[in-house]
Fold this sequence. Notes:
SH3 type barrels, alpha+beta, single chain
Amino acid sequence: MEEQRAIEPGLYRHFKGNRYEVIGTALHSETEEELVVYRALYGSYGLWVRPAAMFREKVDRAKYPDVQQEYRFERIGDSPVEALGSACEADDGAEGAFAEGELVEAKRQIDSLLHKLRKTAETLEAKSEPARYKSQITLARRRIEAFEVARTLIDRAQR
Length: 159
């Protein structure tokens, strides 16, 4: 019988390397089977549900002999912000570092959002009565600043 490790909300790494945020556990309405609700921290950030027993499984050493991780999912932190900070501080190849592809994709998404936010701010500022849109302009500018910080952190992590 598999060990009943607690599944707490937080950040987890799948043994294949991707990161996920566990939102919590739930019960199946018909079978009352315990399920884990989690979100991918890459790609489209999809929301997933998996039986808790599968979530707790040990990695199949016969199928994946080179995997270092003991369990299918292992907890790595409390929040996505904590994981970003540790990954940005890690050396190349160190545990907790993001893969280059993940950083490139994050940068691509940030650049796309920055472009849209800058266009939005410019459009609002060009209106005949920009004062009416002051709060929206301020919000767009703050988001631009936040994404610029994130992009700087990614650039630093890629060095």
